[in-house]
Amino acid sequence: MVVESDGLLDESSLTAAPLPQEAVHVRLDKPRKDDLADLVFLANNKTVAANLAALPHPFTLENGRNLIARAGQVRENSAMFAIRLKSTGRLIGVAKYAAVEEDGAVHVGYWLGEPFWGLGYATEAVHALVDHAFTYNDIEELQGSCRVTNPASRRVLVKSGFQYRDQAMIRSVGAGGSVPIERYVLEKTVWKSLKGWGQGR
Fold this sequence. Notes:
single chain, alpha+beta, eight-stranded mixed sheet, about 30% helix
């Protein structure tokens, strides 16, 4: 589920984490203005939006511009990335981590455009996202969630080391109401013990 946090911090108190984050087939880096057409085309999909917390449908050019602008803001324990195919450099989705509430748990969120589902790209992107979050931030635990009707996202979380915690309800803008979700957690100590996962990327 994509999470939103708009609390801005003084940029001078933060150090910039290295970019891009590389995986086998995908690369995470900042969304750019020239990504706008691909971003809107892929995000303006009811099926994608219904599986996320904050992605509106329809997804407009203005929504795309706002997302790109938010990705450029520096925030503590937070980052937003374009997921790109390394072979072409084209945006195929978005991944992020952020605290939903100030001093709250840090959540991971991600989505891929429908043409790129089922190819292992989401798992690669989440591995890189988790590596970035734990390596360059003072985070001891990450949380993730998926709709109970989204087994593909569940598999991505589990393959990335997340462990099932419980079920809950969350408001989904794209689904137009509250939806049941499964919540997962990954502790930094567990991530460190699983760090050899790179062989399976």
